[in-house]
Specification:
Order of helices and strands: HHHHHHHEEEE
Oligomer: single chain
Structural class: alpha+beta
Number of strands: 4
Distance between the termini: 100 Å
Largest sheet: 4 strands, antiparallel
Radius of gyration: 30 Å
Strand content: 15-25%
Length: 186
């Protein structure tokens, strides 16, 4: 009986020891995962944001919506479909770029090959300025100014391996929808 009791006590102690050891085991820290290209782009995109932070989920949704709009605008520009284009433009931009004084000043700043062209209306701006400055451009990333304002940019490497950012579109959120905002003259 002593042997049986002793064996039972030893078994009980062993079981308690194993349970106690199991409960104190700590998980080894997981190795840090390498940042994905999407993570790196997200960091570049929110780097200079003002105000409210933007989550990665919002970033992904915004980028998808903006890239879809740019693809649609590419088709519109190819067809030179002014009426469809107007649906993508912010109300402030339509108002500003429809002003005759603004168009007159913009006419003076046209490139050499367009000297002599007078922008008379928003349709002229669409045909002589908007389309040529964006046709055939590659948009790679977006950059937030704020949660409601985004730049769509092309990212290229220069010969000296520096990064060059070219802004081709500005978007603002208007009534929950991303619209093209054409910046005012400087």
């Amino acid at each position: 009986m002593k042997k049986t009791t002793l064996a039972a006590i030893a078994a009980a102690l062993l079981a308690i020891t194993l349970v106690a050891c199991e409960s104190t085991k700590q998980e080894a820290p997981k190795p840090a995962q390498a940042a994905t290209e999407n993570d790196l782009e997200y960091q570049r995109s929110i780097n200079k944001i003002e105000g409210t932070a933007v989550s990665i989920e919002t970033f992904n949704a915004d980028k998808a919506a903006i890239m879809k709009k740019i693809a649609e605008l590419n088709v519109i520009m190819t067809k030179k479909d002014y009426d469809s284009w107007l649906k993508y433009i912010s109300s402030d931009s339509k108002k500003y770029w429809s002003d005759s004084y603004t168009l007159s000043k913009a006419s003076e700043k046209l490139p050499k090959e367009l000297k002599g062209v007078k922008l008379r209306n928003l349709s002229d701006y669409f045909n002589y300025v908007f389309i040529p400055s964006r046709k055939g451009r590659q948009i790679d990333e977006i950059r937030y100014n704020s949660a409601e304002s985004v730049k769509a940019v092309q990212v290229t490497k220069t010969e000296d391996d520096k990064t060059k950012i070219t802004v081709y579109y500005n978007f603002v959120k208007e009534n929950g929808d991303w619209k093209v905002e054409m910046p005012p003259l400087l």
